[in-house]
Amino acid sequence: MARHAQPSARKSLSRRSKAVGGLALTTLVGTALWAWPASGDDHDSLADGRNGAPKTAAAPDTAGAPKAAAHTARDAAARRIPGLSDAVRKQIPANTRQVLVVTGKARDSYESQVILYTRAEGSDVWRPGRIWAAHNAARGWTDDHHYGDLRSPEGVYSLTDAGGRLPAPDGTKLPYDHNRNFVANGTGVEGEPLAGAFDYVIAINYNRVPGTSPLDQERPDGATKGGGVWLHMDHDGPTQGCVSLKPDAMRELLRTLDPGLHPVVVMGPAAR
């Protein structure tokens, strides 16, 4: 969103998550994600079965071992969300079964893409959904977000609350504040109209109190760290700090994100 939002609904600024923890995701994408250690070798018995005579250990299968190791690495990688470093993966709570990954085109770019990954109960396999185009802040990303810097905060943040000027789509599971105060006034960073930008919003728990309306103004880390960072409707331009998606994507997210699955968003730029 742009610097148009009224004080009660300032939407695109910034904050550091208390619920999950804000991580500086400078290694968010492309950091040796596929170099997983191979499993331990299996060793033969030292008897060859003839008269019980000992035998020397067989020479390593130099042809089969690399293939087995590569297969193991591929299997492990296939179960993980691609593009995330080990450090980022460790920030995702163990009980989370929905991860919304927002990947910026570059550190200073306001273009990004969004994919929702889900896993079944008891499974460690993450399944990707559709890929959506999105916008982030006008100046890209930062791991030290401040009010007015026109950068989106990198990190791993929980998603617990939603709202909007329009009624919640049928099937919405997150707590939803239907409120006429979700209004974006003025124009965006590039002069584009903002009408309808807050028809649907999902609060990103950066510098906010989970379990409250997205309109809540409390900033646990102080006003200078920004706040009001949302997923909201796209207005065909960069935001002040939020992530904006087309209406169909917002409606699908509202119908899909389930507080019982402890959804989080992982957001930041692709590795350069």
TrEMBL record:
Residues 45-74 are annotated as: Disordered. It comes from the Bacteria. One of its GO terms (molecular function) is transferase activity. This is Lipoprotein. GO terms for biological process: cell wall organization; peptidoglycan biosynthetic process; regulation of cell shape. Residues 112-267 form the L,D-TPase catalytic domain. Pathway: Cell wall biogenesis; peptidoglycan biosynthesis. Coiled coil: none annotated. Pfam families: YkuD. InterPro entries: LD_TPept_cat_dom. The active site is at H232, C242. Transmembrane segments: none annotated. PROSITE patterns: LD_TPASE. It comes from Streptomyces chattanoogensis. Residues 52-71 have a biased composition (Low complexity). Keywords: Cell shape, Cell wall biogenesis/degradation, Lipoprotein, Peptidoglycan synthesis.
